Amino acid sequence: MTYCLSINAERGLVFCSDSRTNAGMDNIGSYSKMHTFVWPGDRVFVLLSAGNLATTQAVIKKLHRDVEQAMLPNLLSVTSMGEAADYVGMVSTQIQRQQASRDTANTNFEATFIFGGQLGPTPPETFMIYPQGNYIHESSEHPFLQIGETKYGKPILDRIVKRNIDLERAARVALVSMNSTIRSNVTVGPPVELLIYQRDSLIEGRRLYLTDDDPFARELSECWNKGLVMALENLPRFPWETDPVKDL
């Protein structure tokens, strides 16, 4: 399984992904699910992937090859974020058809992507690209997208993430969302990759690679656990806990 998320804030974008892939508990591996395509000063694209590993790797390879061979369209030729998302969706469906045509075991070759970035002076955007090639934006009320194992990390995003959230705070929320998912699902695991893109910078930004024993990742997890325990202790007491007479 996989967990990836993006946050589209006023000051920029945050992307976060785990690295675990597996075909059973005795066959666990790690592959990066965060891929960047950067032309400094012109455009920055980030792609997070979930689903069939053969499909996602083939998609990434073709995106690079189309640029290198000047095939049209490509990520360097598109003129808008929407056009770029259309192109990625087209490549994904094409790869899935190719994979399925060679398969005799009814393998599921579907892949889902989060695609985001900024092209020139236009505002940064993020999209969730479905296996069928179509896509959606994040909502204005909840400016984040998730793919993969989403349920464990969603509550913190629902409560905290708003469009005006500070960019570094959004990044910490993303890591807490990831930490909660890793704690609850063994098929999601480190290393965790985090990318913080500042609006209008048109460079890749800050990228962190956090292993299980990374001091910052460990401190963040411990602080979050202690905070949850403290919050539980500070919840209102039942009436009979504060006034024993009412329990009679």
UniProtKB/TrEMBL annotation:
Kindly give the SUPFAM superfamilies that the UniProt entry links to this protein: N-terminal nucleophile aminohydrolases (Ntn hydrolases)
Which domain of life, per UniProt?
Answer: Bacteria
InterPro entries per UniProt: Ntn_hydrolases_N, UCP009120_prtse
Q: Which UniProt keywords are given for this protein, alphabetically ordered?
A: Hydrolase, Protease, Proteasome
GO molecular function terms noted in the UniProt entry? peptidase activity
Gene Ontology process terms (BP): proteolysis
**What are the record's GO terms for cellular component?**
proteasome complex
The name on file for this protein is Proteasome-type protease
